[in-house]
Amino acid sequence: MKNNYLQLVLAGSLLFSGSLYAQEKPGKFIDRDNMNLSVKAGDDFVEYSNGPWVRKNPIPAKETRWGAFNQLRDFNINAIKTILDETKGTKAAAGSVERRVADFYAAAMDSIAIEKLGYTPIQADLQHIAGLQFKSQVVTEIARLRSSGIASPLFGFYIGQDRKNVEKMVPQLGQGGTSLPDRDYYLKSDARSLKIQEAFKKYVATLFTLTGTPEAQAKANAETVFQLEKKLAEAQMARVEMRDPYKTYNKFAFADFNQKTPAFNWALTFQDFGTSAPDSILVGAPKFFEAANKLLIETPVETWKTYLTWNVLRNSAGYLSSPFVKASFAYSQVLSGQKVQAPRWQRMSAMTDGTLGELLGQLYVAKYFKPEAKARMVELVANLRKAFAVRINKLDWMSAETKEKALAKLNAFTPKIGYPDKWKNYDGLEISASEYYGNIRRAGAWGFQENLAQLGKPVDRSKWGMTPPTVNAYYSPVMNEIVFPAGILQFPFFAADADDAINYGGIGAVIGHEIGHGFDDKGSTFDGDGKLESWWTQEDREAFELRTKALIEQYNVLSPAQLPDEQKVNGAFTIGENIGDLGGATIAYKAYKMALGGQPDEVIDGLTGDQRFFMSYAQIWRQVAKDEIMIQRLATDPHSPAEFRTNQILKNVDAFYEAFDVKPGDAMWLDSDQRVRIW
């Protein structure tokens, strides 16, 4: 789970609206048919707990990986489809929630109308770019494309909290401008990287030819785009560096930054955005902007026109006629290994959620999310917080002074469960039942202006970074909040009628994971108010970093079983999520034992409570993935591969050894002094 605002996960299967959940109730919370009892738990807990399940659940052709998250996502996407189908024939009034959702979905599903239009929805934008003559117009066009909801070329931009003054909303700039998943994709020259680079160039050329560009020119355009993006990639900070909240906190007086990067003409850019220039601006990667400024000066206008055209094409391709959609998918297949595209209804259901999530979310919550589930989650979160506090108080490596501040931060956490208390109503956003691309574009422009309007206004702490049907959760360091959408509050993560071992091993570990993000290598640099400010003594910080270093070293040597040994986990890149996983399992187990109140755990189907706890934990991380997507995620995903989220974490949890009688010589055995214990 991401420790920031956005990570939408969506897809589809069969739902029952009459139950407590959007899904059908499972036959068994722990199914022995999914276990491989011929393998010793202490040798390979992934195989022991989930081996048969993996073999019985091959990756569907429309997917790149398959596991608990994906299955539940499929349940939820079907729930969404049920809602959208019900809105089709609605006679709801214009402007109502039902009507707007129904109209968006209707336009998205009208493939006949979309085919007839071809690429005409973007023709005017392409002609506008073709007419550019001067460098100053390039900068103006970048602003126009962004504020019009068409594309976001060259850099990232948003209005967000000042990390050192969290009650103030300020403009923030981030590096960007590239299309491939990571900067290294441009810089490496191994066979796999070269294959992806060629596929990318083919994709760029294809989109150009679909708009009437002669083939030879389209190929030349593709090379132009690649070489410019390669220069931008060379200027970008690496992902591990980007994890450092201090390195990415660079505050400039607006005039000073404008002077440092004059080619951007930031005063005019903000004017084109529709607002006045601010007093100050936060810049994530100043050296990137210095390099981009130089490129703006030195690169011919024609090259920038090709680059901007490409940005319009790649951002629009998925919303245009089938040749564009097919070209986009063909390229994604090279990156991900996905065999077939998900059916249109599934993609458009997800798109409706992604675009109008808090309108659709109101319907989803009313139909599928019951108050009992929220009440149980409130209780679980409270218990996890108590358990974390107990653990903090008993830490032998942290001073009383730092413990006091850690507890103050923990007590200041704000939990959000299920859905927002105040719904976003999308006032001013026009939704048409016949203009799919128009809806997407208007939604993009509306979203940009909604974000821009936050400049100079009080921080809105009621906002959510995920929609209610999302199968995920997040922690926000600047808000110091943990958020659990309704979508994840279902089996195997949560079941209101399951015993405590199941819920604490599942959603309890998720809750602990998100709380843990507040105390990982990055989150621990923020205080209880969300400010980027150290609350540690120097000695305690060094003791913490000694432990994180040991966890980094554990993960650096790991390679997924299905990949060549040279494909290894980056322990420094994944350390935040690994700390979250370790804290999640440890704290959830502590909360479970506290919930028992000293009573012995119940044996169910031959499994003790402790065993069911760890089985439930393993269930939520079970997953199979294609080689292509796993390699990509090793480079781009701060989460470790699923097998290590189970086996490597549990190697460090003392209670796991006791639950399954793990002994020296077992493959998962670590000597006590080698186990990493942080929280």
Largest sheet: 4 strands, mixed
Strand-pairing-aware structural class: alpha/beta
Termini distance?
18 Å
H/I helix tally: 27
Can you tell me the CATH class of the largest domain?
Alpha Beta
Helix content: 40-55%
Number of beta-strand segments: 9
CATH architecture of the largest domain: 3-Layer(aba) Sandwich
User: What would CATH call the homologous superfamily of the largest domain?
Assistant: Collagenase (Catalytic Domain)
Residue-averaged pLDDT: 94
Provide the spatial order of strands within the biggest beta sheet: 2-3-5-4
Count of the domains: 2
Strand content: 5-15%
CATH topology of the largest domain: Collagenase (Catalytic Domain)
Low-confidence stretches: 1-21
Tell the overall outline. Answer: globular
Radius of gyration, in angstroms, nearest whole number = 25 Å
Description:
- The chain is an alpha/beta fold.
- It folds into two domains: 32-82 and 371-424 and 463-674, 3-Layer(aba) Sandwich (Collagenase (Catalytic Domain)), CATH 3.40.390; 119-319, Neutral endopeptidase , domain2 (Neutral endopeptidase, domain 2, Orthogonal Bundle), CATH 1.10.1380.10.
- 54% of the residues lie in helices and 7% in strands.
- The chain contains 27 helices and nine strands.
- Strands 2-3-5-4 form a four-stranded mixed β-sheet. Strands 6-8-7 form a three-stranded mixed β-sheet, covered by helices on one side. A two-stranded antiparallel sheet has the order 1-9.
- A hairpin with a 4-residue loop joins strand 7 (474-476) and strand 8 (481-485).
- The longest helix is centred in the last third of the chain and has 26 residues, at 571-596.
- It is globular, with a radius of gyration of 25 Å.
- Mean pLDDT is 94; it is low at 1-21.
